[in-house]
Amino acid sequence: MNSSTFAFLDEDAKKEIRRSLLKAVAIPGYIVPFASREMPVARGWGTGGLQITLSIIVESDTLKVIDQGCDGSVNAVNIRDFITSVTGVESSNETSAATLIQTRHRIPEEKLKDNQILVYQVPYPEVLTTVEPDTAKQKQMHGDGDYSKLWVLLYEDTSQYGDSRISNRYPVLVNKHYVMDPSPIPKYDIPVMNNNSALQLFGAGREKRIYAIPPYTDVRPLKFDDREFKVENFSGIACERCGATDVFFDEVRRGNKSSFFCSDTAFCDAQLEKNNAA
Amino acid sequence: MTTSIDIELLNRENFRNCLEAISRPGTIHQIQTFLDSGIMAMAVMLLYSEVNFYQEATGDWKMMKALTGACEGKVSKADYIFLDAPHSDILMESKCGDQQNPEFSATLICACEHVTTGTTVVLNGPGINGYKETTLPVSGTFLQKIQEKNRHFPLGVDIFFLTTDNRICALPRTTKVEQV
Predict the structure, then answer these.
(1) Domains present along chain A, CATH in parentheses
(2) Of A80, A94, A257, B159, which residue is least crowded by CB atoms under 10 Å?
(3) Quick check: A220 contacting B, CB < 8 Å?
């Protein structure tokens, strides 16, 4: 490792990203534009999260990278290998051991702590894209707090289907002000964002946007008062590997039979170890 | 002698402390000095060629401009404002963004006395688990001016207080301050 290029990015690039990060934390849920750099992975493969991680990482950090809860998927392994190769930091699969967690589409099952930072990889940062394609109008709508089109979409879904059809990227209201795209995490993870102890940072490299949720911030799914926010239902299901219940599951289909496994592989490993020790 | 690689190390460690400070308002973090100065350390960490700054603070600012490429300008245009002491007029003149671009606002770095000598306040808002009673190293009048400046969220300014023993705490625009 060449120490003069710690964390791959040059110092001015880091300073620009850091400036955006400070503003993003100070204005929770607001999307801050930044000059996304070329990275040694294609845009859309986690470059936003990667740039945030590389701009904030320090030698004393312990890094964890997950892709849909899994430490061992190709995307997670490659990003982890890249970051450790350009920084020399330690990495770990254990959620509690990590100080910096980069994630794609999941929040770890284990409760996060005060000293942890969760960096999300975000494909589409703008929550209004589905109802308003014009970026100038989107900016104006955020400025005016005008989310009526999202409410209409929610109303149409509710009146026709009884509930919203949005399965992931469910819009959330942050600090009672901005409506934000939480990245394509399942609805199951939305309540975990609320009042979380960890700092949550979001990076969209292709779309050149950064946003954030500070710790202990009010994050609510957009919903009508008389409607319950329903998350994925896994009642009666247990992980076939570790036996855990009340977690988010991956469904694996084998012919006509479905098997369920913990989506968070580190959690599953820890449960299995606990079971074996007992 | 301080080398360029030392500056990058200093910057990333100091930035992490600043990020912690602004994420959790009222918490206190130690920063490392640059040229024996806390405010110079903040400047070298924050400034780069695409930002403007204004300063009324002790330090070798000519060298800082050469080192970072940042431009010095008027208070009303400055992205970063470095002050040797809290200054209400400068605070009120600083830019606070607009409804569509609230990030086009100033960040103030104010040198102060010790954190323990100041005004006792109760903070609440994002980054704070409920309420937090603490002491901020500035006068009650200055805190009132901050509240006035930040009354129309998302417009506002974000402030780092830097004490003489090089510790920082931050007040982002979202933090509500109540004097005890």
Answers:
(1) 3-129+157-221 (3.40.50.11310), 233-278 (no CATH)
(2) A257
(3) no
